[in-house]
Every structure is written in structure tokens, then in C-alpha cells.
Amino acid sequence: MKKSIFLAIFTLAIASVSQAQNRPFSGAVFLGYPMGIFDAPSSGIHFSINPLYRISGLFSLEGQVSYSNLKYRRTNDFFGHDGGSTRNLNLLVGGRLYFIKESRKIRPFIHLLLGYGSGYDKYYDADNAFKPDKTGPLGASLGLYIEAIHKFSIGIGVEGPTPNILVKAGYQF
């Protein structure tokens, strides 16, 4: 029942955002692949919903609700453990700055978002003992992206509280 209510609210929110094409409000959905900074990833997924409010042709306020899950293995013994997994949940706000005016079909932009972040890292040490570690409450996202035809975005960023490098692609409503 809870899933049905959440799905109905989510569908209504997306529909209302998609109706706002000529207004300053819009939104984007991103899927991505997280990679640990010093890790060799074996699998992972990132998903985010980003509401946008256009202030000018070159600047927008941006929010982000995101979740990422990464399983990794270590590539050397310097870090003293042999792999594990990381999960992040972020509720962020900040700005999106475009480098080129709105009339162009391809527009690079950066975003910097800060807010609440909850991370959980579990890993195995050199003795194969399980070690859990929680991070937070500060979350952040910094990324460089390219928007094409005012709808599609692709880029790379760093996001955390448990820092991951992300390759993301998205669609703007």
C-alpha cells in the first residue's frame, strides 16, 4: 500500500514538473555509475531526482534527492582492507551555472550542491573482519556536465558523504 501511494505521488510530481516547460520550474532524473576514489568497482548504481528553478539564462537553483550503492574491491594493500560496499543517501541544494547562453543546443554547466548526507560503508580489513562505518551528516555534489537540446545531460561528478566519482546521464522535464 505504501509503495502504491508513493508511486502515485511520484507520478503526479513528475507530471506537474513536465507541464512547467515554459515556467522557471523544471526537473531532471539521472542514472549513473558510482566508482570509489581509490577502489576498483565491481558493481554500482546511482539514481537522483533534481528539481530546478531558473533564476536567469545562465544560473539555476538546483535540489537533489539521490541514492547510490557501490560494491568494490581494493586494488592494493595500502588501504588495509579487501573490499566492501558503500551506500549514500543525499538531500542537497545549491546552484547550477551554465557557461553558454540558453539559445545554444549544447551547454556545459557545473553544479555545486550541499546539504544532508547519510553514508554507510562496510568493508573487510586485512584479517577479513567486517568493519561498518557511518558517515554524514554533510553531503555534497560537485560535477561538470553537458546539456544537449535542453533535455539530455551527461557528465562526471564527485558526491558523498562517502565520496564516490559518478558518471551520470539524465533527462530534463
Descriptors for this entry?
single chain, 173 residues, Porin, 10% helix
Characterization of this structure:
The structure is a single chain. With 173 residues, the protein is mostly beta strands. The chain has a single domain (2-172), classed as Porin (Beta Barrel), CATH 2.40.160.20. The protein is 10% helix and 68% strand. It is built from one helix and nine strands, in the order H-E-E-E-E-E-E-E-E-E. The protein has one helix at 2-18, and strands at 25-36, 39-54, 59-74, 81-98, 106-125, 130-135, 138-148, 152-160, 164-172. An eight-stranded antiparallel barrel has the order 1-2-3-4-5-7-8-9. A hairpin with a 4-residue loop joins strand 2 and strand 3. It is elongated. Residues 1-12 and 15-21 have low confidence and may be disordered.
Topology:
Layout: H1 2-18, E1 25-36, E2 39-54, E3 59-74, E4 81-98, E5 106-125, E6 130-135, E7 138-148, E8 152-160, E9 164-172
Antiparallel strand pairs: 1-2, 1-9, 2-3, 3-4, 4-5, 5-6, 5-7, 7-8, 8-9
The averaged pLDDT comes out at 82
Helices and strands, in N-to-C order?
HEEEEEEEEE
- Specify Rg, calculated over alpha carbons: 18 Å
Give a short account of the largest sheet. 8 strands, antiparallel, barrel
Structural class: mainly beta
Please tell me what the overall shape is: elongated
Quaternary organization:
single chain
What is the helix tally? 1
Number of extended strands: 9
Helix share of residues? under 10%
The figure for the number of domains is 1
Report a brief summary of the structure.
This protein is mainly beta and 173 residues long. The chain has one helix spanning 2-18, and strands at 25-36, 39-54, 59-74, 81-98, 106-125, 130-135, 138-148, 152-160, 164-172.
